[in-house]
From TrEMBL:
Gene Ontology terms for molecular function: S-adenosylmethionine-dependent methyltransferase activity
Lineage per the UniProt record: Eukaryota, Viridiplantae, Streptophyta, Embryophyta, Tracheophyta
Species this protein is from: Linum tenue
Pfam families reported in the protein's UniProt record: Methyltransf_11
Annotated ranges, domain Methyltransferase type: 39-128
CDD domains: AdoMet_MTases
Protein name: Methyltransferase type 11 domain-containing protein
Length: 266
């Protein structure tokens, strides 16, 4: 998974949306203590930066050193490169001891994980019974009717052959992801989501193209000798955007699954 994002790490850091304040406020409201959070698959630190304003210590891990190189440095954020699956015996060394973490977060990465192995690790480090796990994804953005029409066609036809099959979990807002945790207090009984939020990012047309180049599908296509942003496609987007220097508000639907660890052993 990490290999898909290494070559476009700079584009990823510049163009991926910051997550909405309301997302973190909701997660924090369901976390009894705000001492330690483990942000898994942190990438270039999009979530870690926001979490650092709420929690005393953020342990932000990723398998890609290149992605971590682009993450903002803050005094209470500790970035660590880890193997794709951390040996259980190494969890205290890489992350934390048993039942010492208040919150585990995963932004736009859960679909890549070996879920049974990861859930056992999250269960082990989280405080019992109220430690919280929160995982979210965002789908393709909404801009305006003209651009959306071009983007929908481009996503469904041009880029479709180059997405990993796991992308379907993202398109479904993580509804199909196995999530064996208890509902938190602010949710309905037995309800772990998904709950919808909206992230906004201001972009001109070149910024939007840079965002597309950060897609894993774009990199896969490029490695197969296909340029997804060919002249014809670029021209369609230019006509829809009207003034390519105009900054538009790009809205990303964000879908959150959230639950508490409880006392049940995985």
């Amino acid at each position: 998974m990490a290999e898909l994002f290494i070559k476009q790490a700079a584009e990823y850091a510049k163009t991926r949306p910051s997550y909405p304040k309301q997302l973190f406020e909701f997660i924090a409201s369901e976390t009894p203590c705000h001492d330690v959070v483990w942000d898994v698959g942190t990438g270039s630190g999009q979530a870690a930066v926001s979490l650092a304003g709420i929690y005393k210590t953020v342990i932000a891990t990723d398998t890609s050193a290149t992605q971590l190189d682009h993450a903002p440095r803050l005094p209470n954020v500790h970035y660590r490169r880890t193997p794709p699956v951390i040996p259980h015996a190494d969890l205290p060394l890489h992350i934390a001891g048993e039942s010492t973490v208040d919150l585990v977060t995963v932004g736009q990465a859960l679909h890549w994980f070996d879920l049974p192995a990861f859930y056992k690790q999250a269960h082990w480090v989280l405080k019992k019974p109220h430690g919280v796990i929160a995982a979210w994804c965002y789908c393709e953005p909404e801009i305006d009717p003209a651009v959306d029409s071009v983007l929908d066609s481009f996503y469904a036809a041009d880029s479709a052959p180059y997405w990993d099959p796991l992308r379907k979990l993202v398109e479904d807002g993580y509804r199909g992801v196995d999530f064996p945790f208890e509902a938190v207090g602010g949710a309905g009984e037995g309800d772990t989501g998904p709950f919808r939020f909206t992230a906004e990012h201001a972009m001109d047309l070149e910024g939007f193209f840079m965002y597309v180049r950060s897609w894993s599908a774009y990199q896969t296509a490029k490695e197969r000798g296909v340029e997804l942003l060919g002249d014809a496609v670029v021209e369609k987007f230019r006509r829809a955007w009207c003034n390519e220097e105009k900054v538009k508000v790009v809205r990303f639907p964000v879908y959150l699954r959230i639950g508490k660890v409880g006392m049940v052993k995985l």
